[in-house]
């Protein structure tokens, strides 16, 4: 096991996001073991899953508790969206009132890794020898690894994909084969607007789509090497020619109506697709469950995200589970690991995929899925064929959350008529300030 973290290490976690470290609890692994009236070890689990994903997650918690009756009780509590949950978690570092397991989004991966507040998942696996991370799909393992070591259990993994109204594409005379590159997607969306009067494309203003834009174009999102080596990422890559050109074209499409503008509301983008106001939507695979349950009045399909180079592809997203060591005994950490292994099992991953659209994380879970819809098969095919590369590893930076706010603002500005080159240049300056501040304050 790794050595206990130091108080200064956790203070750095607090300082890196600008929260006072006054009254910070001492760090260590000497926390107590909470038990319930039946003598079961209580594992408090904070999560941010709602809708279909939340229902599935609670069902898995109930299943685990039933199979571990008399031993472990996992108590799951919804903490709001990912941003709300991590803010509460960081504030709770000061009081020591931390969960044994935290479900954190992809954007928080490097941040939690740098903090040292969690027991690395690979260490827990090595300790009991009961979980082999080599069974993870290469793309998933690539995303959640630091120097080839997995630090959290991939739980509900997603990739963005292209949701398509086949009827509107046919009306516009657009061939799906033309959607394989970013330029092909842009041209198709413009044609759809010209031929049908409907927007060709929609996606909400989340910085995630700027990251995916770079990945679709085969560009690193941060440098050096997307933060995948021992050297910290020190700059973002928001002003490369390919990205600026793409967003200049997106700006023109917003102005013409070829690109629907839902603002920051993902539900508004999905609503536009469902109402046939937009022919295509870039959306997470995790949105499949809600869309499949809707009564759509048109023929629809899912296509892989466009790829403009051989190394390009959709970067995984979603969430993973972290075993928090601060304030928890090794007994509680082991109980937490039992639940994490359960979530990482083939059966749990297949259930998550079938009910939500989040993607299976292991090779055998993927191979065992047979009774799937054409839309689900398209998601599985993209997962299996996305190249494992430095590009698709995504940007690993503890400053990613703050930086994402910078280029999300740029997205909104571009949608409202700002020049893309100027907006992205401003985002570059702000994002680089975020990463420099993070490195300085966290001592990274």
Automatic annotation (TrEMBL):
<comment type="similarity">
    <text>Belongs to the bacterial solute-binding protein 1 family.</text>
</comment>
<dbReference type="GO" id="GO:0030313">
    <property type="term" value="C:cell envelope"/>
</dbReference>
<feature type="signal peptide">
    <location>
        <begin position="1"/>
        <end position="26"/>
    </location>
</feature>
<protein>
    <submittedName>
        <fullName>ABC-type sugar transport system, periplasmic component</fullName>
    </submittedName>
</protein>
<keyword id="KW-0813">Transport</keyword>
<dbReference type="Pfam" id="PF13416">
    <property type="entry name" value="SBP_bac_8"/>
</dbReference>
<keyword id="KW-0762">Sugar transport</keyword>
<dbReference type="InterPro" id="IPR050490">
    <property type="entry name" value="Bact_solute-bd_prot1"/>
</dbReference>
<dbReference type="InterPro" id="IPR006059">
    <property type="entry name" value="SBP"/>
</dbReference>
<keyword id="KW-0732">Signal</keyword>
């Amino acid at each position: 096991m790794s050595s206990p973290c130091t108080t200064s290490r956790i203070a750095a976690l607090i300082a890196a996001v600008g929260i006072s470290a006054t009254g910070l609890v001492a760090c260590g692994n000497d926390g107590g073991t909470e038990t319930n009236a039946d003598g079961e070890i209580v594992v408090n689990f904070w999560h941010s899953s709602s809708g279909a994903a939340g229902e599935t997650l609670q069902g898995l918690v109930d299943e685990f508790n039933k199979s571990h009756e008399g031993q472990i009780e996992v108590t799951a509590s919804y903490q709001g969206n990912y941003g709300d949950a991590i803010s509460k978690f960081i504030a709770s570092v000061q009081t020591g009132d931390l969960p044994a397991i935290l479900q954190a989004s992809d954007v928080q991966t490097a941040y939690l890794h740098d903090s040292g507040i969690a027991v690395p998942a690979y260490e827990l696996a090595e300790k009991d020898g009961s979980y082999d991370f080599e069974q993870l799909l290469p793309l998933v393992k690539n995303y959640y690894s630091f120097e080839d070591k997995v630090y959290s259990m991939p739980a509900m993994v997603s990739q963005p994909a292209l949701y398509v109204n086949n009827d509107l594409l046919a009306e516009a005379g657009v061939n799906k084969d033309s959607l394989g590159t970013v330029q092909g997607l842009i041209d198709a969306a413009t044609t759809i607007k010209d031929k049908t009067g409907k927007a060709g494309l929609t996606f909400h203003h989340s910085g995630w789509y700027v990251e995916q834009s770079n990945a679709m174009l085969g560009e690193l999102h941060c440098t050096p090497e997307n933060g995948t080596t021992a050297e910290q990422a020190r700059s973002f890559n928001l002003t490369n020619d390919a990205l600026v050109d793409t967003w200049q074209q997106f700006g023109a499409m917003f102005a013409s109506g070829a690109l629907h503008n839902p603002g920051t509301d993902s539900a508004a983008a999905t609503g536009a697709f469902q109402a046939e106001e937009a022919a295509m939507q870039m959306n997470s695979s995790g949105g499949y469950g809600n869309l499949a349950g809707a009564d759509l009045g048109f023929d629809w399909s899912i296509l892989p995200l466009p790829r403009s180079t051989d190394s390009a592809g959709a970067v995984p997203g979603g969430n993973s589970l972290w075993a928090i060591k601060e304030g928890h005994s090794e007994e509680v950490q082991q109980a937490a690991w039992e639940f994490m292994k359960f979530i990482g099992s083939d059966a749990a991953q297949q259930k998550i995929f079938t009910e939500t659209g989040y993607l299976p994380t292991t090779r055998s879970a993927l191979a065992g899925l047979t009774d799937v819809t054409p839309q689900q098969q398209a998601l599985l095919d993209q997962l299996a064929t996305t190249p494992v590369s430095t590009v698709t590893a995504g940007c690993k930076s503890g400053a990613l959350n703050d930086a994402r706010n910078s280029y999300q603002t740029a997205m909104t500005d571009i949608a409202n008529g700002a020049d893309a080159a100027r907006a992205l240049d401003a985002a570059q300056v702000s994002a680089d300030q975020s990463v420099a501040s993070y490195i300085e304050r966290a001592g990274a």
